[in-house]
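batch_manifest entry 22 of 60
target: F-box/LRR-repeat protein 4-like
source organism: Temnothorax curvispinosus
requested by: lab member K.T.
priority: normal
notes from requester: please return tokens only, no post-processing; we will run our own comparison against the previous entry in this batch. if the run fails, retry once and flag.
--- input ---
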Amino acid sequence: MDFVNFLDNCGRRLTHLRFRDCDSVDNSVLLKISEICKNLKELDLNGCIRINDKGFSYLERLNALEHLNFCNLYIKAQRVCKILQKNQWMRELYLEDLYIFELMKLADSNRRNLDVVAIELKNSCRDLEVISLRCSKFTSQGIDALADCKNLRKLYLPLYPIDEDSLSRLLSSCQRLEVVYLAYITLTDRILKLLTGCQNLEELHLFHVKRATYKNLSIIMEQCPKLQKFHLIWCDVSRNNYKINEWKKEYSHVSVYVFDSI
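--- output ---
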């Protein structure tokens, strides 16, 4: 009740609201936000699991959102799409561990449903700059749709294998990329060439990547002039500490982090 009173008194001037794992945030709170916070640009609902579909529907009344965090939530894909349709100035969207609850028991259908969200981003939010999909699932159709969001600066792709053709189209289309997170891909000559073509790249995170040879990784550090952080997680290359130390000397401008449980 105190928070609702706060919204009544101050909500019209609020532009940013961040909740994280808040048990007190439920449908009634979102209703009040939708009625009062018409200037809201950022809304972080990460882990606010007391909200259901009715509560999320209230967000369709807002039209100024630019930053939305839906991580760790249960929500219908079509509801996400309707919210995006109303908020076409969206710049940052976080969908990590997003559960499309009406199809949770059907993994393939779940992926297709998330593809619908990517297609909506293509149609409604082409100025999108940041997208985080880690732990979510998409097919090549969804990845292809994201390729039309050409202003992407930060790209966190799912922790699942991605079709090389779709990844190639995505990397070649998004020339402003500064941060890239890739998992379960093969570092082919084709992908390597596209990564080194990302001349604004500042951070590269590789997770369970095949063909991550010393030669290929050295090429990335040589040809990406703005690279500052290079993270290798569960890549075989991380087992050779001597080579890692050589990298740190030769590419002192790059902070190299390696992790291997073996």
